[in-house]
Amino acid sequence: MAGKSAALAQPDLSGLGGLLDSLAPEPATPVNSILIPVLQAVQERYGWLPREALERVSRRFRIPLSRIYGVVTFYAQFYLEPRGKHTVRVCRGTACHVRGASSVLSTVEQVLGVADGETTPDLLFSIETVACLGTCFLAPVMMIDENYYGKLDAAKVRKVFKEYKKGQRARKEPAGRKKYSRTVEQ
């Protein structure tokens, strides 16, 4: 969900026709078999799935809009509202829960001014809680984009967001490599 004051941005869909044409299946391929890849491509381009884009997908591939919405609302990977430039994932797994994940989430929500599942009005951050980030040794942990931040407390969470907002976040790892052991020093 977008933050309460965030207006739904209307993206420029002028290039959508070409994208959909490039994804058209071979004549013998069932159209329903390409629905998820088409939705992924549309979301990759716009960052979310605008209603008008879904309507165009429906018309172009002759798939009922109700079926498209059924797929979009079933899979957590699809978003029906604009997303932030940065995705913040807060782990709520057992190790993180025991070591203070609720405090981490509360601090993230306080710092950003939006709740879990929402996007900041400036479209800079979206918050999600996840079942596990697979880095229990760093508990409690959060992930921003592809960067992991562990052994967090409220002060460390504030420091991370202060760096992001100043544009001075830690350097990004080379493509294909994720940083698994990032901790924030006080």
Describe this structure in words.
The protein is of the alpha+beta class and 186 residues long. It has two domains: 16-74; 86-166, Glutaredoxin, CATH 3.40.30. Helix content is 38%, strand content 10%. The protein contains seven helices and four strands; from the N terminus they run ααααβααβββα. It has helices spanning 16-22, 35-46, 51-61, 65-74, 94-98, 101-112, 154-166, and strands spanning 86-91, 125-130, 142-144, 147-149. Strands 2-1-3-4 form a four-stranded mixed sheet, covered by helices on one side. Strand 3 (142-144) and strand 4 (147-149) form a beta hairpin. The protein is elongated. The two termini are 32 Å apart. Residues 1-7 and 170-182 have low confidence and may be disordered.
Could you write a compact summary of the structure shown?
The chain is of the alpha+beta class and 186 residues long. Helices cover 38% and strands 10% of the residues.
Topology:
Layout: H1 16-22, H2 35-46, H3 51-61, H4 65-74, E1 86-91, H5 94-98, H6 101-112, E2 125-130, E3 142-144, E4 147-149, H7 154-166
Parallel strand pairs: 1-2
Antiparallel strand pairs: 1-3, 3-4
Architecture of the largest domain, according to CATH?
3-Layer(aba) Sandwich
Taking all residues together, what is the mean pLDDT?
A: 84
- The rounded Rg comes to 19 Å
Regions with pLDDT < 50 over 5+ consecutive residues? 1-7, 170-182
CATH topology of the largest domain: Glutaredoxin
Helix and strand content put the structural class at alpha+beta
Q: Quickly count the helices.
A: 7
Q: Strand fraction band?
A: 5-15%
Task: Give the termini separation.
Answer: 32 Å
Q: So what's the CATH class of the largest domain?
A: Alpha Beta
What spatial order of strands do you see in the largest sheet? 2-1-3-4
What does the main sheet amount to? 4 strands, mixed
- Counting structural domains, the number is 2
> Going by CATH, what is the homologous superfamily of the largest domain?
Glutaredoxin
Helix and strand pattern: HHHHEHHEEEH
Give the CA-based shape.
elongated
Number of strands: 4
Helix content: 25-40%
